[in-house]
Design a protein that fits this description.
By secondary structure, the chain is mainly α. The chain is built from 16 helices and no strands.
Length: about 400
C-alpha cells in the first residue's frame, strides 16, 4: 500500500475519535449542559445525520477540486468545528458544531476513499478501505478510551481539544504527501457516476451495511451507561471496555481487509449469523460483568468484520463511479449510525432500561440476515466465481 493511504488513515483516526468518543462522554455532557442522557445521545445521531447528507453532497460539490485541496478544506473545517465545540456552553451550539464537523468528515472520507482505492489499484479496494476503516477502529482502541480518560480527569471539553490537536499534523502530512492532480486531468462526470449508482443490487448492499452499522451504533452509543448501570462496572472501567471494543473492531477490519477482496461470503454469512447470536447472548447476560466484557470484544470484532466487508462490496459494485462510490458507502454507514442511536435512545426513553439497545441491535441484524439470505441472494453467491467479489 502507498504510504499516502496510511496518512489518510491517520486523519480518519482523528475523525473516528470524534465520532465515537461520545460513547464515554455522554453522561458528563448531559450533566454539564443539563439535558437527558437520550438527548445527549442525539449528538451521535446528529453527527451521523450530517455525514449522510454531507457525504454525497460534498463529494459532488468537490468534484472540480483537486483531491489534495478537497481533503485539506474538509479537514480544516473539521478542526474549526471542534474548537468551537470545546468552548461553547450551549447544547444547541454543540449540536450545530457536530453537524458542521460531520459534513466535513463525510466529505473527507468520501474523497479519501476515492483517493485510497484509486492509488491501491482495481483489485485491492478491500485492503485500501481497510486501512482507512482501520483508522476508525484505532480510534476505538486508543482515541476513544483516551478521550474518556481526559473527560474523567479534566472534563469532556478536553477531548474535543485533543481531537483538534491531533488533526493538525494530519493536515500537514496530507499537504506534503497527497500527490497533486496532474495538470489538464479530465474532471469526473457526475451524471455518469450517478447513473452507475442506481443499480438495485448496489442498493441492497447499501441497505445491509446500514442495518449492520445501525446495530453497532445502537449499543455502542450507550455502552457507558450499559456497563455501569447493568453490568456493575465502575466509571473507571469504561475506558477499558471501550478499548476492548476497539481492539475487537480493529481485528474485524483486519479480517475484512484480508478476505473481502477475494472471499467475502466467508465473512458475511457465518459472521452475520454469529453477530446475531452475540447480540442475543449479550442481551441475556449483560448483568454478568466478565461475560459482558468478553462480548464487548467479540461483538466489536464481528460488527466491523461484517460491516467493512459490506463496504468493500459497495466499492466493487460502484466501480463505475470511482469519485462518488465512496460517498454512498459513507452515507450507508451513517444511515445506520443515525438510526441506531435513535432507536436505542427511544427504547431507553420508553422505560425499557439500558439493556434494551442490545435487543434492538439483535433485531437490526436479524433484519439484515432476512434480506441478505433470501433465495435470490444465495443463488447469486453460488454463481460468483471463487476468489472474486460478489458480482454487480
Amino acid at each position: 500500500m502507498p504510504i499516502v493511504i496510511y496518512i489518510l488513515g491517520l486523519a480518519v483516526f482523528a475523525q473516528g475519535t470524534s465520532e465515537f468518543m461520545l460513547a464515554g462522554l455522554i453522561p458528563d455532557i448531559a450533566a454539564d449542559l443539563r439535558v437527558s442522557v437520550p438527548a445527549a445521545g442525539t449528538l451521535t445521531s446528529t453527527f451521523a445525520a450530517g455525514m449522510i447528507i454531507g457525504a454525497p453532497l460534498m463529494a459532488v460539490l468537490s468534484l472540480p477540486w483537486p483531491r489534495r485541496r478537497a481533503l485539506l478544506v474538509f479537514l480544516t473545517a473539521f478542526i474549526a468545528a471542534h474548537v468551537v465545540g470545546a468552548v461553547t456552553g450551549s447544547f444547541g451550539v454543540l449540536l450545530a458544531t457536530r453537524v458542521v464537523g460531520a459534513v466535513a468528515n463525510a466529505g473527507f472520507l468520501a474523497v479519501g476513499l476515492a483517493t485510497a482505492t484509486g492509488l491501491a489499484g482495481p483489485h485491492a479496494k478491500g485492503r485500501a478501505a481497510s486501512v482507512l476503516l482501520g483508522g476508525v477502529t484505532l480510534a476505538c482502541v486508543a482515541g476513544v478510551p483516551a478521550g474518556a480518560v481526559l473527560g474523567n480527569l479534566w472534563g469532556w471539553r478536553t477531548a474535543f481539544w485533543a481531537v483538534a490537536a491531533v488533526s493538525v499534523p494530519a493536515a500537514v502530512a496530507i499537504l506534503r504527501s497527497v500527490p497533486p492532480t496532474p495538470q489538464g486531468a479530465p474532471l469526473p462526470d457526475a451524471r455518469r457516476e450517478l447513473r452507475a449508482l442506481r443499480r438495485p443490487r448496489l442498493a441492497v448492499t447499501l441497505a445491509l451495511a446500514a442495518l449492520v452499522n445501525g446495530a453497532t451504533f445502537c449499543t455502542f452509543t450507550y455502552l457507558a451507561p450499559l456497563v455501569t448501570e447493568v453490568s456493575g462496572y465502575g466509571r473507571a472501567w469504561v475506558p477499558a471496555l471501550l478499548a476492548a471494543f476497539g481492539l475487537g473492531s480493529f481485528a474485524g477490519v483486519t479480517i475484512a481487509g484480508r478476505l473481502s477482496d477475494t472471499r467475502p461470503m466467508r465473512v458475511l454469512v457465518p459472521g452475520g449469523l454469529a453477530l446475531l447470536a452475540g447480540w442475543l447472548l449479550f442481551a441475556a447476560t449483560a448483568a454478568i460483568a466478565p461475560v459482558a466484557f468478553l462480548l464487548v470484544l467479540v461483538q466489536g470484532t464481528l460488527s466491523f468484520a461484517v460491516g467493512a466487508t459490506l463496504i468493500t462490496q459497495v466499492l466493487y459494485r460502484a466501480a463505475d463511479a470511482p469519485s462518488l462510490g465512496g460517498s454512498f458507502a459513507t452515507a450507508a454507514l451513517n444511515v445506520g449510525a443515525t438510526a441506531g442511536p435513535l432507536l436505542g435512545g427511544a427504547a431507553i426513553g420508553a422505560g425499557l432500561g439500558y439493556r434494551s439497545p442490545l435487543w434492538v441491535s439483535a433485531l437490526l441484524v436479524a433484519l439484515a440476515l432476512a434480506v441478505g439470505l433470501t433465495p435470490a441472494a444465495r443463488s447469486r453467491s453460488r454463481t460468483s466465481p471463487p476468489g472474486q467479489p460478489i458480482p454487480s
